[in-house]
Amino acid sequence: MNRNNQKSIRLEHILISFFEEKTGALAEISLKVGVDLESLRSIHFPNDEETTIYHEQLQTTLTAGVQTVLEQAEKYMHRYNQIMINEGHVLKALLNDPMINSIFTEQQKQLLLNLGTTARDMITHLADYNLPRDAHTQQIRKAMKSDSDHLLSFIEKEFSSEWMRTIESGMQDEHPSIFIAIDDAEKIIGFAAYDVYQHKKCYFGPMGVAKRNRVKGIGYSLLHHCLKDMKEIGYEYAIIGGAGPMEFYEKACDAVVIPKKW
Length: 262
Known about the structure:
- By secondary structure, this protein is of the alpha+beta class.
- The protein is 40% helix and 17% strand.
- It folds into two domains: 11-118, no CATH class; 122-257, Aminopeptidase, CATH 3.40.630.
């Protein structure tokens, strides 16, 4: 393929894709932001085409504006201690571009940020839930009282004092509803909990896996051990509070975003 003749991905292409998405949190954008999709399709930024770059990983050409957006999205990813760029990172970076920024009112921009870039509550139905076969069990077990010091130290170091305090409170229960993941050296590398955040019932979270151990299915397994417990308790639904990587929960347990009211 002649790269010079290949059509480049431009800023307006990415913008339109956010308004065309009909699933997940982004489905609310086209319904609530109040922008005509046809008018977006007519937008063209000539200055954005002055320089194009071939992106080896995507195997396509990008305009310089799109490359800048992706670089900024990657910075957001690192800032939030994540390992994959998600839709929220890209949308937030896109709205930083002066040309894109000029299209929307301040109210529309705030709505876009609230709907597409912030953590959202999600929900999944447990009535027909079964533990998936690929939810590994050899690394996962219930936290015991003797795990408390190591667990709290791990959470404070890898995540936040706020999460540490939430789990500290949960560990005071007679039978803590907290699972941990351990490595071959018996060191804690992840955790997940339910019914611990403000002692709310049917509420999953927080959950975290050490950055060096992500993309190994550990978070997936921790999630499903909690959901299995919640199903056995008799919960009809599980609320996933403040889900950051929403795409993960959509795929892992068919969770859907709880719509916001405005």
